[in-house]
Amino acid sequence: EAPAGAQVRALHICVEPALCGALEPVLWAVDAYGCLSARGLGSGRVLAAWKWTAGGLPSVTSVALAGNTSHLVLVAPCLPGQASVVLSAPFATLLGDTARFSDGCHVHS
Description:
This protein has one helix spanning 91-94; strands at residues 8-14, 26-31, 35-40, 46-51, 64-67, 71-76, 85-90. With 109 residues, it is mostly beta strands.
């Protein structure tokens, strides 16, 4: 389960199963600890949960999640006094053959 006080910082929903990387619509969420999780809206199952990192940072705390028909986009602060980092990946890659679960990202099933 998530650490006490974990707050959702950003949400994104992908509603077209054929494009979401799963066989169902997917709700994406990032919490205050930088954990990105994907939950199937048909099954209610947690499909993946991990810390999405960039540029050697230990994790990022999202300020925005967005997407189009094929990609999830996360915008987050980088380091104090520097520009934000923008991460993007295809839904199919994020939810590919290997489900991602990392230590420190515990979500309710």
